[in-house]
Amino acid sequence: MKVMKIKVFISIVVFLLIGCVSTKKQQTSNCDDICGIYKLQKSTGKLELKSDGAYTLYKPKILFTPVVEQCEYASKGRWSFVADNLLELTSEDKYIKQKGFEYNIMKENRFSQDSLYVQVIFPSDFHPVELDLCFNYKKHIITDKTFIAIPKSTYLYMTNNDNLIIFRLNADVSGTTIYRGRVTFKIFEEYIDIEKYNYLTIALPNFDRCFFEFEPYYKELIFIKNKNQLFWKGSIWEKTY
């Protein structure tokens, strides 16, 4: 009886190992079939699926004038199979902190002590966002100005020098394009000694057009129509090579 049980157990293990090997081969074969560069019909937009599991979504070329800053890609990240005819994308912002969130604060003591002064410096004139400042989780200031004077007595704790300041950028501004999921950019959350420092200069060296227009995806599904075509965003993407 024991010998029989051992034989059955070995058979199950061998079966599972063979299944794993065949699955890996099938996935490799699928990747060989599906990896490559796909072009969106009637557009210069391209999607590249790489064999290492990375993807790059290239932006369509801007052909009209005047020429504005052209970003090479719209999104980057990882792709994987979820079924024989289905794959998904997850952009890099889901697992790394993007450079656009980097900031520097210069703290000074200037002008009248009854106000907190905030100046925000972008890398260019392109900044279709509003400043969103929250103080001690209680009071907000939202403005499209890059320099503001904030009355301490109205917005800050006067009995406690250390005040919590949360600084965000709100992209939900009338007249601008709202990109997928990119409505609020949280830059930092810090305690500031408002008696020692009342003038903050916040530099955002990488908050440019390309960062703002980055397209985030999380488990975004793409239908594999055949070896040469994908169906995504309601359109056909044709494999070029």
TrEMBL record:
This is Lipoprotein. It comes from Bacteroides sedimenti.
